[in-house]
Predict the 3D structure of the following.
Amino acid sequence: MEEQNKIRIKKKNESPILENKKFILYWMQAYRRFESNHAFDYAVHLAKKYDKELVVYEGLRSDYPYSSERLHKFILEGFRDNAKEATRLGINYWPFVETKTKPGRGLLKKVSKDACAIVSDDFPCFIIPEQNQKLANKVECAYFVVDGNSCIPLSHFPKPASAARILRPWIHKAFGNYFPYRAKSSYSKRELAKLNKGTKAPFEPYVPEQMDSTISNIIFKEHVGIARDMEGGRIAGLKKLNEFVKSKLALYLEGRSNPNPPEFTATSGLSAYLHFGYISSEELVEASLGSDWTVESLHKKKPGDRETFYSNKNSTNHFLDELLTWREIGYLFFWDKPEFGKNLTHLPDWVKKNMEKHKKDRREFNYTLEEWESAKTHDDLWNAAQIELVKTGRLHNYMRMLWGKKIIEWSPTYEYAFETMEYLNHKYAYDGRNPNSYSGLLWCFGLFDRPWFPERNVFGNIRYMSSDSTKRKFKMQKYLEYTNELSKI
């Protein structure tokens, strides 16, 4: 491993690497790919250093929060791609999927008994921090977690940032130092040839060809149907990435905000693939900047300038600002305190005072969770956004903001509004249960924003959005026609 990259690696316990054991175990949790993966790179490094077998374990519980057929199928399509790639590379890959007849309780400890060290993913949100700590407490060997969340190790930053304008110069100053040390783009079979000694898994491995029968043998927490135009896995993610760079990246600045059907919207559609780890942010940066780009191309004299810093193309700069600045601002808030974002307690003081002042304001409408979920409000734009979320697992970027603002306006309390937003987003959205999910929801309450005037009912000085102003700003007919057709599915 390069010295510059060692800042990404953290030891979860004080146990030694046990050289008398059989293999290095990489537990694939968040970064579900073999390419462009810092954690996998470190596992390969340890296996070669100690002359040990490399075993990759990818597991899937059935009882995770918000588990559904929609999310499970998206993940299992990733298992399918990983199984093919593991075969191509000659990797000893152990996939396991929990079902009614194949419980997973205690399995990881069993898998780990012959490991001389364990490597996993240092993802700062949802169930992964807890899972990492629980396994680290149970095993006798060294347990490493690796931060592969973005181009710059999150531990590099001095503290969380309260606004994008504060974080942006930090990223710009560090980017040129870290981007050259990105994860290895891919491996050849020859490079991994001596790392598979054929050790058998202590369980019956999952067979990708049995995906449908496996799903039918699981009791899910939520009943959410599969979106017909969403396919999980690395292959589908790379296809979307290539299509975006080829057809939409140049239009991103002007075309990303206008609500339209996905085919007419200049966004990448890659947030779900980033969330499930099928592609990396480093790969998105590389693809966006092009093969002839070098670190010397950075406009280093303008740190903080989102218009020009990365390249001479405005649309590329704005896309990378969304990918790096606005994505990482949420990850940073979770980094040192994974509990952040799961309630309203971490909002800025000005927002808390604002909510205290306006908590008893009269709400013009007051909808139940059932009415929200079934898109039965008086507002056609809000209903359209909710239909898109339920039917496709996505929300248009601009409509997501309006969607959240209206839930605040038409809920009896701010706490109830947040719980409603969290439930609907995490249940239906492919990219939910993520630091950016929480930071996006909490932005609606004023996080990473400033006070806005004039002061309004319910919102006070929190930024206000309305459906009427959205209709004046954008031509909404295509979006409404699109969601109307979705409602018939």
Summary: The chain has a mean pLDDT of 96.
